Every structure is written in structure tokens, then in C-alpha cells.
Write the C-alpha cells for this entry.
Amino acid sequence: AQSVSQHNHHVILSEAASLELGCNYSYGGTVNLFWYVQYPGQHLQLLLKYFSGDPLVKGIKGFEAEFIKSKFSFNLRKPSVQWSDTAEYFCAVNVRATSGTYKYIFGTGTRLKVLA
Amino acid sequence: EPEVTQTPSHQVTQMGQEVILRCVPISNHLYFYWYRQILGQKVEFLVSFYNNEISEKSEIFDDQFSVERPDGSNFTLKIRSTKLEDSAMYFCASRETGARSNTEAFFGQGTRLTVV
């Protein structure tokens, strides 16, 4: 079955520390990969996405992610976090169902707290 | 920037009562979703809707659930007789293109449903 795993459920960092959040997926076909962020009380916002091409994708707010096909991974990184990055981060895979339509499969989310 | 809006932000209901969660997708979007997230768990797909009918639904989406686009702008999720285990955050999402194209979805801020 298709699944997305995020191994870190809670991460606490100090400002200026580097961040890497792991994401692995289980799906044998062509995938499109996303990272979404949810700030407290707000909606899910797209951070970045990978459809094809350069496996290193850059998103908003200084985030980037690298798609490593051989490892079925799409880890999120940021070299220096800020207090305002405190949020919950979701990795998602968009897969094509047997019906031909697309749907998202999400990971469990990683709650990041950045200490000022 | 256009966004998906959901109302109410928080709904408390008694077990056995019917609830309707409302969503206004982005106006030129064609493809709509409902997802839910039980506290501490992953975001789960419920249903997708295109061209005024359900495209796909998960095993969670049983006979107690229904969706409707009553007036061309709203997209509603109805739970006929709520159970305690329906307590969750419910997210609506919409996509610009049709069911067989692959673009990112835009999510609303969620409705937190609490069944007591």
C-alpha cells in the first residue's frame, strides 16, 4: 500500500540551527512530492514541490528539498531556522489511483519548535 | 491571493447529531477534496469530487458521509450521525485542473470537529 513516513514527530531547535526533516514514501510508480507547512491556526500552505527535473528543489522561506529516487526520500532542509518557522510540516505524495485520478497521501507530520 | 475558506473553524456537536462542514474552494478550481486529521495522526484522504460527482472515496467515507456542491460555490461535507471517533480536523482542498491532470492542491484552514 502507498504510504509516507516522517520519522521525526517533534523537533526542537534553537534559532540559526540547521534543519533536516526526513520523508520516505512507498510507491512504485511516478510520484509527485510536496512539503506543506501549517502555522498555528492557519491552513496548509505549500512550501515546495517536485514534479520532474532537478531533484533539488527550492521553495519559499529558504526551504529546499532533495528527491533521491533510489532511497524513496524527499527530505526537507533549511540551513538556518528562525523562530517564525515554528509550525507543523507535512510531507505528501500525489499518486495516481487506479481510477486515473490523483490523490494526496500525507505523512503524520513533524511538529517543529524553534526556540528564540 | 485566492484561498480556500472553511466554516466554521470549530464545531462542537453531540454524538448522533448531524453536522455540515462548509468550504468555499478557489473560484476557477474544478477538483475538490476532503481530508481529515485525527489528533496526533496523519492527514487522511476522505473523498474527491469532480464534475458534480464523487471521483474517489476512501474506506473511511462510509454511508454516514456525503458531499455536495449545492450552489456552484460551496462544497459541503455532511456527517449524518456523528460518532466520537469523528472528532478530527477536517480539511477541504481544491485544484485548478481536472481529475486526470496533476497540479498541487490548495487547502483551507480546517474545521475542528469535536463530538461529545
Notes: Chain A is about 0% helix and 55% strand. Residues 38 and 58 of chain A are 18 Å apart (CA to CA). Chain A has a mean pLDDT of 90.
